[in-house]
Write a structure and sequence with these properties.
about 450 residues
Length: about 450
């Protein structure tokens, strides 16, 4: 079975076979004889040199008719050389955009980078409700925070628990959903270009075989190539999150991956009554393949664009603000019950661990790129495919992760200082609390929406 790596051998063979077919199906009906094409006409014997195994050269005309050699030999050389060059140029032109297609192994590396992001964010939504979670840093620490937070009471603490701690898991779950969209798109591109590379090789081989058949017998038969790129946009999520019963951990956020039922592969037939007919069918098959790629990438781009719009229309589901905690004795915000050791676990271990993991996850995300799918601008929707929309979502998710990491850090710092104030009532601690509260009032320095 031929593959994309065989093009270096297939293309020269196709060129030679196409020229053989051209000579065989011409009105003169040239016959192949080793390194020459030959005919007998009007009592004279004529020859034209055949291209080499590399598909190049050929076209030198000669005859045993002395007068013909003298008077028409040069013109005949030009005629056949130009004809051969035209066939080679037609094949080269058709294949030019397809010679440097994305390398699936390089795309797979980017799939894995986004998969690491998804793994780190997974399980947070379940942990926020006390559900079964995996061993990841974020869900494990969220579960411990919920457990310890039962040791605190008071109006301000209640707001901190209900508006921040309880919402932290669902927000991270929403960010997990965005990572699934990103990963699904990269996985779809990997499968898409893997199939495209195989199809290109098969189309070239079918063109060669049809041309060879013409050269050998004057007929091509029907050589069929099944285009295998259809449906990859919808397959991306299943590949990126294999075996998942529920792709998204938080539903109702308007995030979605490309949906689609299985579709039959379109089949292209390479055949023709002569060399020109085969070349036309070959070109048509490549155009059809490109049309299928373009349709799949349009689905991916539309999905990314739609998700971006949905996220921006529902900012509060992805951008959580930590409520300030104050220790004001005698007021409704007074902390009336607490266990210092448990609160310190929250503020000095669990929340910092989550903040650090969010920051590191953002760095991992930024290491991923869709530059690996760059190709000739004539293929797919353009040279970058859906790369622009993908990069926009990647940057938005990174900013949301940084934004949330800051909130978690400040929330931990605020709560820890309140605990110190409850225990010491020192002016320095009160000043530090005022400073943190001022920072919270000023707002998060990372604005994902600007």
């Amino acid at each position: 079975m031929v593959g994309y790596g065989d093009l270096g051998d297939l293309i020269p063979r196709f060129k030679r076979a196409a020229i053989d077919a051209y000579m065989r199906t011409s009105p003169s009906g040239w016959q192949i004889n080793g390194d020459t094409y030959e005919i007998n006409s009007s009592g004279a014997h004529y020859k034209v040199s055949r291209p080499g195994a590399d598909g190049e050269g050929g076209g030198d005309w000669s005859s045993d008719n002395f007068i013909a050699n003298i008077f028409v030999g040069g013109a005949k050389d030009d005629e056949f050389r130009e004809a051969f060059d035209s066939i080679r140029a037609r094949i080269d032109t058709a294949l030019s955009p397809w010679r440097s297609l994305p390398e699936p192994s390089e795309v797979e590396a980017e799939v894995e980078a986004v998969r690491q992001v998804t793994r780190r964010l997974s399980g947070a939504a379940a942990a926020s409700e006390g559900g079964q979670v995996g061993s990841g840093v974020i869900p494990g620490n969220l579960a411990l925070i919920l457990e310890n937070s039962d040791a605190m009471a008071g109006t301000a603490i209640a707001a901190f628990k209900s508006k921040f701690v309880a919402q932290l898991g669902p927000v991270i779950g929403g960010l997990h959903g965005l990572s699934v969209v990103l990963g699904s798109a990269v996985a779809a591109e990997k499968g898409l270009w893997e199939a495209a590379r195989q199809n290109v090789a098969e189309i070239v081989e079918a063109g060669r075989a049809a041309s060879q058949s013409l050269a050998d017998s004057g007929a091509t038969g029907q050589l069929k190539v099944a285009l295998q790129v259809a449906g990859w946009a919808a397959k991306g999520a299943k590949i990126f999150v294999p075996g998942a019963a529920q792709v998204f951990e938080v539903v109702g956020l308007g995030i979605e991956v490309v949906q689609g039922a299985a579709t039959d592969n379109k089949t292209e037939t390479i055949e023709g009554a002569d060399a020109v007919g085969v070349l036309s069918a070959f070109e048509g098959a490549l155009e059809a393949l490109n049309g299928e790629i373009r349709a799949e990438e349009a689905l991916l781009q539309d999905n990314l664009t739609k998700n971006l719009a949905n996220v921006r229309a529902d900012r509060s589901s992805y951008d959580l603000s930590v409520p300030p905690v104050r220790n004001d004795p005698g007021t409704s915000s007074d902390v009336i019950a607490y266990q210092p050791a448990l609160i310190q676990e929250i503020t000095r271990t669990y929340l910092p661990a989550i903040a650090s993991e969010l920051t590191e996850t953002g760095s991992t995300l930024l290491s991923a790129s869709l530059g690996c799918i760059m190709r000739d601008g004539a293929l797919g929707i353009d040279a970058r495919g859906p790369g622009a929309a993908w990069s926009e979502m990647r940057w938005l998710l990174n900013e949301l992760l940084r934004n949330l990491s800051w909130d978690v850090t400040k929330g931990a710092e605020n709560l820890d200082l309140v605990l110190q104030d409850l225990q010491s009532h020192e002016q320095q601690v009160a000043d530090d609390i005022a400073k943190v509260l001022a920072e919270l009032d000023a707002g998060n320095p990372t604005d994902p929406w600007n």
